[in-house]
Design goal:
mainly alpha; three-stranded antiparallel beta sheet; 13 helices; 60% helix
Length: 254
């Protein structure tokens, strides 16, 4: 039968998409389910892949299977380290423990916190390659780690930096003043065919986006109950950056 962890996560890839905290709580749920089933067996802190991959399906490419197994095992070790730190799990007694098998502590047996797998599923919908290159790596990493507020703040900070860079080394303005310099008459990010209505619209779009989505994060630790909101805001920042890239190659309005 599929292990409880795989049954609730859905796939090996979803397991890898969890933060260490999320995986730790999922393992608590898995171990609690195992305790109710005498044939389910214990779980090893060093071989998470062994309990998942045989029932999760495998790639035809053996190298990919090995890489997946190694990533699962690393994630498992990090999650179990947290469980031991939180006094929720400990090595089993005797030879089993020396071989890496883990059991719940009394505190772990009564724990009721659960991983929000719907949140994990939704977060997985945003792939790194969907974002502007400047939002990949470090900023996407915040998003993948469920630090959504930092991801959005850093994304729109990047938008402002790119607009300022495109506006010239003397651009010391902020907010609307900076956007007006960049997108106003004769600005470095305008097009020859645009008129005042276009300039005002772009100034308002960029200034409004920074005011609405970046500024709150500069003064508070912003949180998101709905992951989709953070995804949408990151995609907006990505679209604005692509607009800046495209306009950098256009001759300015005379």
């Amino acid at each position: 039968m599929p292990r409880q962890l795989l049954a609730i996560a859905g796939s090996a890839e979803n397991v890898l998409s969890m933060t260490s905290d999320e995986l730790a709580w999922a393992l608590v749920e898995d171990m609690q389910a195992r305790a109710q089933n005498p044939i389910a067996g214990m779980i090893s802190r060093d071989n998470l892949a062994g309990g998942i991959m045989p029932v999760a399906g495998v790639y035809s490419d053996g190298r990919k299977n090995q890489e997946l197994a190694e990533r699962l095992d690393r994630a498992g070790r990090a999650a179990f380290a947290l469980l031991e730190k939180w006094d929720l799990a400990e090595p089993a007694s005797g030879m089993n423990g020396r071989n890496g098998y883990m059991v719940l502590t009394e505190r772990g047996k009564s724990a009721t916190e659960r991983t929000d797998f719907e949140r994990v599923r939704v977060r997985c919908l945003l792939k790194e390659e969907m974002l502007h290159p400047l939002l990949r790596g470090r900023i996407y990493g915040y998003f993948a780690a469920d630090d959504l507020g930092t991801a959005v703040f850093e994304a729109f900070k990047t938008v402002e930096i790119e607009v300022r860079t495109a506006s010239g080394p003397s651009a010391g303005e902020f907010g609307r003043a900076l956007m007006k310099k960049a997108f106003g008459s004769g600005g470095p990010l305008t097009k020859p065919t645009e008129n005042k209505g276009d300039w005002d619209a772009l100034t308002g779009l960029f200034a409004g986006a920074l005011h609405r989505f970046r500024n709150p994060g500069a003064h508070t630790n912003r949180t998101f109950a709905d992951v989709l909101e953070a995804m949408e805001e990151l995609m907006l920042a990505s679209r604005l950056l692509r607009m800046v890239d495209k306009r950098r190659s256009q001759p300015p309005t005379p």
